[in-house]
Fold this sequence. Notes:
alpha+beta, 16% strand, 35 helices, globular
Amino acid sequence: MLVYSRNTLLSLRNCWKASSSAGSYGSVIRPILEKTWQTLSLYNLLAPRRGQRGGNHLRGGRSITRICDTAAREFRRPKITSSGANYCNLLNIQIVTSKENTTAATQLSTSKFLKLKLQIAHLNVRSVKERNHLIQLRKLMREKNYDVLAISESWLNSTTTNAEVEIAGYKITRLDRTKKVGGGVCVYTRSSLKVKRLKEMSVTSETGFQQLWVQIQLEKLRSIVLCVAYRPDYCPVSCFVDDFMEKYSQALTFGKNIIVAADLNCDMLKPRSPEAVALQDLCDSVNLTQLIKEQTRVTETSSTLIDVIMTSSIDLVERSGVLKSHISDHYLVYALLKLKISKPPPSYVKVRSYKNYDSQCFISDLERVPWNEVFLVDDASDMVDRFSKRFLEVLDSHAPVKSVKVKHRHCPFVNEEIKVLMRDRDRLLKRACCTGRPVDWELYRDSRRVVKIRLRKAEREYINKEMEGCQNTSSQWKLIRNCLPRKETTQQVYTRRVKEVAKEFNEFFVSVGAKASEASKALIATHELSPANEFTSGQYIPDEEKFNFRAVSSHEIRRAVMSFSSSKAPGLDKVTMSVIKDALPCILPVLTDIVNRSLLSSVFPVAWKISEVIPLPKDGDHEIPNNNRPVSLLPAASKICERVALNQLMTYMTTKRRLSEHQSGNKKLHSCETLNVMITDKALEAMDAKKVTLVVLLDLSKAFDSIDHATLLAKLQALGVSRASLDWFKSYLSGRLQCVRIGAETSSLQGISHGVPQGSILGPALFTIYLNNIPSIPDVCSLESYVDDSKLYLSFPVAEASNVIQQINKDLKKIASWCCYNSLLINPEKTKLLVLGTRQMLQKLPADFHVTLLGKKITPSPSARDLGLQVDSILSYDEHVTQTVSSCIGSLCQINRVKHLFDARTLERVINALVFSKLYYCSPVWSNTSKKNISKLQKVQNFACRIITGKRKFDHITPVLRELRWLPVTSFLKYTLGVLAFKCVKGLAPSYLCRRFKTRASVHNRNTRYKNTLNIPAYKSASGQRTFLYRATSFWNSLPCEIRECNNLPTSFNNYVLRYFL
């Protein structure tokens, strides 16, 4: 239902009139939107009656007032279709007055929460990311409690994340300026309000005028449209007609009240100035009312009103005004609207309270528990129930589970001394504005400067004190992450009852796997797929060589417990791994017996099968289940049993060579780096042989969730798992339950019929076993996998392209068939095709070159992301380096803004963890890139060096790098190359890499002085010399003899090479 008020109809007509004629500011004629024109035409509002000057006199004698007053009557409207349906019925338009509109909307819904009036504010902040500005902005929002805060001149760009400028309890929507420094607009809205960004309307014009449009839902059926705008002083006022008018007329068609909060740099205190005249003409033409009447920017030499709030309905406004702010040289403007919103309910979470927890007292109470009662039962599930009951009774007395209200601690370092300084600053500003004397303005500026310095110092002292109180590395990193946030902490607020949302989410999550499995089965009939023949050895495995679980000792359980991180989230019982580590001296015999009873009786305890799922919002509406990523939390004790089972299973699989070497996931010595090295080396060798390499990056939808349990058990049996162990895996997979928790609300438990447990220890290993046979499916191509990321590749001469494509399509069909028959849903839409080769060879490919997967044509992409690398068709890695440098610079900019909080040692540790880990990811693969790209990487290292040492931009950086004992990027890339070469030579890398490294003595029988060096392969072109094999063997042979003959661990070799370079 579109509700048009009298003011809206006036605005629509005025917009059409302004757009249909050349504006007074030299604008071009722009046609009004078709929908707007039809609305105007419908109500006969396009022109005044001849002889009249406008007003309420309209063609046909029908006035706006008359139309509004007779809204209930049935109007005669033109027929727009042959069937006789009129335009009113199609648009479902109801016309009421503004007052009636507001009253009706207020009565639409009732809430059990207190009703509040909507408060909107606007401030030109001149950089949100400036630390002092952000601190004062957070303090302002805590004190004034505005519902919506519009910001102009945010100065945000791609290097600033939303989490970095977050205000607790608010969501941020941004429109950054990309081409120039400064500018930018954003809006903070209370998290309880639902906000929709109007993307097509939110733009930055070529002249620099910025407008961000959002729709804010207040109640279930009531919303407003907000525009946050900024006009720089160099932008011509013609932007009001050229840019703003079109978007405003589009917003009018929504039938919502419109609020415009902006810094337009038009001084309304000088009504005869060209800027003020242009703005007033805009307000008159579109029926906007400007609310602010006082000056909004006062300096020693000027007093102007350039920050405004405008509304399409003056009846909506109860109060407006100006609030003096010291964040920038602009004052804050605000408006209180007659729109009621529900007070957001408080958020609660269920956690264990460790306020009175003492580990020694806890252990003393555990020692008095009669644990021998646990051993009186034979069933593993009963043992876990008894153990959990007694353990939780003791733990609840020391650390009870409580529902805690979520509170945000705002600026804890702002003490009373700083508050006094702020009050003095406010007093001095008031005096300066009254007297206007230069000496008073100078005193005010000095006071404002002192406040900023004191805030900076207080924050640094607070962080240093907290760092000194941290007992371990984990708590230190928690503090560092608070200063360098990566994700927003504001909890999502739901418009419906949270319990109902949690139930809906749980129903969706438990059905995802089954639906994906059904969809894959449906593809069999749709595409007439026949079962693919899997390659199996068919070898009989005697019972004595089959895998059987064995009993473990207390020492193995202790080692498994200590291998876990203490900071992982607990399961439904709220028992963390740190508590288990504290209690281990008392409960180690009990845990050992429970694990052994489970493994030997082939029963996985029922209590350990219950998982708690936390939905993490992705992009889009967070109340839609599909826009959330489920994170499963399992009991800590169950992970101990899983770790023991995993160690035994993988030891057997590795020793007996049961797993395919084409699967690099969840294996020792294997990584994304080693797999990428092998694939790119084969592509470069094909280029050297004047061939191209076709790579198909396969995508599986909901792969972990859709696994069929019966099929998985059959695959385990084929790999040599005994009947008793198979029963344990069957018990582990079946009967699983999960619930969804949102805040303190938890849904009921529901069963899971498909998939391996998300967040479990065994899940990834079972998935790789499930895919173990897929490399044997293709006839012509080769297939490599890293867990669920599989790629099909084949090298061929361009002349054979047509024949090869037919063979590849057959292999793709066989793979699709295998996936469907194994309940895996392959997604052609997200499957990518890459063709790797030299520029000359790629130009010779047919114009219609493509492959076909499940009836969809897949054409070559210029680049695609594979295992964290952006791979392009000629393996130049230009795009990968550009993206990596951009990401690293963004992280460094964030670190640079808070560097005053940390000492040099902490900064170096942070940069190594957050920046250099990204910068050098898979560097042996792409270190053959151009010198231009290497220089880009060097600039990142130089920037990091200057952050730590405080050196200026043009200071010579090489001596500083030596002082920090940092290798230049070129040397460090050689270092990482040498480390991987060492692993390949010493057998510490996958076999598919190790067997490519051969000594010269193994190639020929001649007894030369270089017989123990590596054989350097002979390639015909520069492409071959870019391979890892060529570069690694050449670098290895160039190292001193004492380094090459080092037989120690890689750590010792690393130190040798570092000393060599330094």
